[in-house]
Amino acid sequence: MISISHVSKSYGTFQVLKDCNAEVARGEVVVICGPSGSGKSTLIKTVNGLETIDAGEIKVGDFRLAPGVTHMAALRRSVGMVFQSFELFPHLTVLSNVTIAQTKVLKRPKAAAEEKARSLLTRVGLSTHITKYPAQLSGGQQQRVAIARALALDPEVMLFDEPTSALDPEMVNEVLDVMTSLAKQGMTMICVTHEMGFARNVANRVLFMDGGEIVETAEAAKFFNAPASERAKAFLARILKH
Amino acid sequence: MNVDLSAITSVVPFLLSGLLFTIQITLVGVAGGIVFGSGLAVARLSNNRLLSAFATAYINVMRSIPLIMVIFWVFFLVPWAIGWLTNGGRPVAVGASLTIYVTFVLFEAAYYAEIVRAGFRSISAGQYAACEALGLSKLNAYIYILFPQAIRNVLPILLTQTIILFQDTSLVYVISATDLLGAATKIAQRDGRLVEMYLIVGVIYFLFCYAASQFVKRLQGRLAYGVRG
Lengths: 242, 229
Fold this sequence. Notes:
The complex is a heterodimer of chains A (242) and B (229). Chain A is an alpha/beta fold. Chain A is 38% helix and 26% strand. Chain A contains nine helices and ten strands. Chain A is globular. The relative contact order of chain A is 0.17. With 229 residues, chain B is an all-alpha fold. Chain B has a single domain (6-225), classed as MetI-like (MetI-like fold). The radius of gyration of chain B is 21 Å and the shape is flat. The N and C termini of chain B lie far apart (58 Å). The A-B interface holds A 48-50, 72-73, 76-77, 79-81, 83, 85, 87-91, 100-101, 104-105, 131-136, 149-150, 153 and B 124, 126-127, 129-130, 132-137, 140, 144-145, 148-149, 152, 224-226, 228-229.
């Protein structure tokens, strides 16, 4: 479904991605973890073209992304993205947030778009909030709206860039629950997250990044029980200490 | 000197026609200025260097010269310019009203452009990323997502600029147009009633601008997201 081959990227003299290679099969859930500044967010953003790449190639389905490719409408349609800071549109109601791209990008009729939005918002447990504005919702609720907004375009792949990092602890689980049910329904997902419980229980595989490199790729259980690289061992020792 | 306020009643219709023209200039200046100014703001923020350089130059030039100069230029030069283009070099008469409308749109656009640009810059980079990630075209992103937020963020400043525009319309007296001040001046000189006329005109300008600035003040409190509904 997704193949990342020999992808590199630099900001000036600082190389954020160094010859990254990864494959994600259809229906697979892959968690990217690693210390901050390791290039996780940059890597996930290259998959839908929000970050350009300097070398290498990324394939998503039939779409081929390489340095210099600028026309990405088809790619964006098949890849949904959820951001750390939600990025809902503050001047639109919850319902409009979920319908706007359907009507403007997919040219769906308004009634069909609203029906789709209602059913998605019901699925993420927000059917009673559709006329509210984002600022009237809690962080966890906003992030669930953001998931519904991305799902509204029927993406084949969902990208999650630290979806729970900006949330209060008591709201983390409501977002992880939605992500877990999405994974169970067979969605192909790439998640940058520090939620090791989610990674262990839901992810098929873990990509461990450090210093712009993919240091280790392993099945989730194997990664947590017996990490192969010293750097992964050190990382896990640090974050699982308490 | 005796002040005779009864001198005002008989000239009310003439003053009102002047006030109407003042309001018309303001409305045309606001509407045209915000539309053209928004275009300039988007052009200035564009990645296209030529477009950006043109918009920047236009804005800087317009903001560096007095409005009264622009009124003169448009009034004296536009008839020649149109003449050169269409009439074999002979100037074509352009009415005072049209001159004034064109001037105010061209001039105010430079100020509105900078305000709208500040509005766009106040939107977080994440909003632009969200538009891209959803596959919205640049045009749709600007129309439905970015422009409404930009305008909302700078609405008080836009209205304050509009109050200044309303006051600046009085400068059209230099080409003898009959706006509110022009009407008052004409009557004052005809009847020798300078004090009464300039007093009443001052009161009218004050009432309009004070009411508008109070409105802006109240609006500022209500603009935070999430307060409504």
